[in-house]
Specification:
The structure holds two protein chains of two kinds. Chain A is an all-alpha fold. Chain A is built from eight helices and no strands. Chain A starts with a helix and ends with a helix. The model of chain B has no long low-confidence stretch (mean pLDDT about 85). By secondary structure, chain B is mainly alpha-helical. The chains are: A mainly alpha, B mainly alpha. The interface between A and B is large, with 103 and 101 residues.
Chain lengths: ~200, ~180
């Protein structure tokens, strides 16, 4: 799937540019974006090093296990494949908490750690059920405080920069419930296919 | 308002403080452990690079060629019939693909129409309630070497769609009255 999308974006773009006369723009964008990707990856180094360092301490101190224990009742239902008190659960929960506060930068390394643990559980290079659920939770973005948006609104002189917090929370809740439902539906479809 | 800003600025330092205190109480060698965990971060960022670069180049070609705009022009008349402002379409279309591009469009919409206009509020809500599925997928799966994504992409994109529709409905309901 990702192969198709990747190819589709580039191929459609190039063919479109042939007729649209934007080949020069494509050329420029090609190398500019490659450069941007490198800058982005370098930018990630600082955040990843810092938070992974901190998280290692939190892990050794038993904080992740504590957090996981606290939210266990809800999350064992959402992630039935992951054993109780498994470190994966701790990382999932801390990723979730970071996202809640709009700390996207802090959430990424935690999400990657969660993925690593889940990969060890499944021992395969195919996405497991819990990985897909985890991604569904992440892409539906459970944000309580959309910090970046509030900052932009303030900058543009909004009378009430935070008035969108309420609508965001409602929309986010709907999309999260929707994502989990869709995830379940797809999972059931996979199970049914296997049984045939 | 002031409470939210206070929480936003306090939360990270307070988390750091708690982690360091808990580590010290549990007799974890904090500094050494930090460095050890941090080393992993360097490797991670480097191993992410090819995934990020590949995806970003492909998206950049798509946008620079004008294909993105073409797609938007194709869809927007249909949406205006449903009462959805056409100006929001580029944001909805790009949100799952590129986080930085989406943020740029949101900023642009807020600037053009004003933060307290309906489009400004809708753009703000949409930005906050959806996420860059392709980025999350690329980064998370790329970092741990997942080759077959299964249903992850479909589920992620559908979740975005729900977020977009939910933002439109909620904003129409809350702000239009």
């Amino acid at each position: 799937m990702v192969n198709v999308i990747w190819m589709f974006l580039a191929a459609t773009g190039i063919i479109y540019a042939m007729f649209n006369g934007t080949m020069e723009d494509v050329n420029e964008a090609l190398f500019k974006s490659a450069n941007e990707a490198v800058m982005l990856a370098i930018g990630l180094v600082s955040v990843l090093v810092f938070w992974l360092g901190m998280m290692r301490i939190a892990e050794r101190a038993g904080l992740l296990r504590g957090l996981a224990k606290l939210f266990k009742p809800i999350f064992t239902r959402i992630f039935p494949e992951i054993p109780e008190n498994h470190p994966a659960m701790g990382y999932i929960l801390s990723n979730f908490s970071a996202n809640l506060f709009g700390l996207g930068n802090a959430a990424t390394p935690l999400g990657i750690k969660a993925m690593k643990e889940m990969k060890q559980l499944s021992g395969s290079t195919t996405a497991s059920r819990s990985m897909i659920t985890f991604l569904a939770l992440n892409t539906s973005s459970v944000t309580l405080i959309p910090t970046t948006v509030i900052a932009i609104r303030m900058q543009q002189g909004s009378v009430s920069p935070t008035e969108i917090v309420g609508t965001t929370i409602i929309a986010t809740t709907i999309s999260t419930i929707g994502a989990l439902t869709i995830d379940r539906l797809f999972y059931n479809r996979r199970v049914r296919r296997k049984q045939r | 308002m002031s409470m939210i800003t206070t929480i936003s600025t306090w939360i990270i330092p307070v988390i750091i403080l708690l982690v360091l205190l808990a580590g010290t109480i549990k007799k974890v060698p904090t500094y050494e452990t930090f460095v050890e965990g941090g080393k992993e971060g360097v490797q991670m960022a480097i191993s992410l690079l090819p995934f990020l670069l590949g995806m970003m180049v492909s998206i950049a070609i798509f946008r620079a060629s004008g294909a993105m705009e073409g797609l938007v022009e194709l869809i927007s008349p249909l949406l205006s019939k449903l009462g959805v402002p056409g100006e929001i379409v580029p944001l909805a279309a790009i949100r799952p693909i590129s986080g930085t591009a989406a943020l740029a469009i949101t900023t642009d919409l807020i600037k053009t129409f004003g933060p307290d206009s309906f489009i400004g509020r809708l753009a703000s809500t949409m930005q906050g309630s959806t996420d860059t599925t392709l980025y999350v997928l690329t980064v998370y799966f790329g970092a741990v070497g997942i080759k077959r994504m299964g249903d992850a992409l479909k589920v992620g994109l559908l979740a975005d769609l729900i977020g977009i529709i939910a933002s439109i409905i909620v904003c129409t309901y809350v702000f239009s009255l």
